Amino acid sequence: RKEVEQDPGPFNVPEGATVAFNCTYSNSASQSFFWYRQDCRKEPKLLMSVYSSGNEDGRFTAQLNRASQYISLLIRDSKLSDSATYLCVVKRGGADGLTFGKGTHLIIQP
Amino acid sequence: NAGVTQTPKFQVLKTGQSMTLQCAQDMNHEYMSWYRQDPGMGLRLIHYSVGAGITDQGEVPNGYNVSRSTTEDFPLRLLSAAPSQTSVYFCASRLRLGPAKETQYFGPGTRLLVL
Questions:
Q1: Does residue A74 belong to the interface with chain B, where contact is any CB pair within 8 Å?
Q2: pLDDT of residue A92 exceeding 90
Q3: Strand A104-109 to A11-14 pairing
Q4: For residue A103, is it left (φ>0), alpha (ψ between -120 and 50) or beta?
Q5: Nearest 5°: phi and psi at A46?
Q6: With an 8 Å Cβ cutoff, are A101 and B100 in contact?
Q7: How far is CA A89 from CA A34, B57, B63, in A?
């Protein structure tokens, strides 16, 4: 089983719709969780950290389920500018690097 | 602050050539790392450093060397380029904070083609 798994998509979603992605991770020792956004041919940028209690940042909501080892990202009222690849990222702790999922490609259609 | 900078942006090499990818950050971050991104593979960690003078291997270190003589700079050296090293290389840095606050900043990437 891959350490971080995501549905690669693409997800084709009309503007204004709500879309959700899930991500599963295999290492139960993982301590930190993030969603990164990557635009075509650009570097990844942090979208939001994911906390155990769930957290919201504007139209974006992230949730963590440690028991089932999955992370979710919900985007409400989607905009054309939300079109990107969303990377699920997990970190074990200490000096470990980040482990990236392969990303979920989202296309918002007008 | 310039953040994380990488040079060159693009490079074409012939098999067997060596080169150094430069990475610098001006945020006084202790932790720096190199990733490669290949289609369908996601980002994979090559090497990382937790401070000046300290480096360690990541998931895919073979064929690459790194050094960290200063806090700011973390160059990646390809010893003898191979076509399998054709990829996009990203350098990243972060402060060594607690696990809940580790925002990692990426450079703009170097696109490398090995013929």
A1: no
A2: no
A3: parallel
A4: left
A5: -60, 125
A6: no
A7: 5, 19, 25
Contact A91 B48 (CB under 8 A): no
Contact A95 B56 (CB under 8 A): yes
- pLDDT-derived band at B99, boundaries 50, 70, 90: low
Q: Compute how many other C-beta atoms are within 10 angstroms of the C-beta atom of residue B4.
A: 24
Specify the length of chain A in residues: 110
d(CA B106, CA B6): 9
- A88: burial class by Cβ within 10 Å (0-12, 13-18, 19+)? buried
Quote the minimal CA–CA distance from A8 to chain B in Å.
Answer: 9
Q: What digits encode the pLDDT tens for the residues B53-69?
A: 999 999 899 999 999 99
Chain B neighbors of A51, CB-CB under 8 A: 100
Closest CA of chain A from B110, distance in Å = 10
* A4-18 per-position pLDDT tens digit: 999 998 999 999 999
Phi, psi of B60 (to 5 degrees): -130, 65
How high is the pLDDT of residue B55? 95
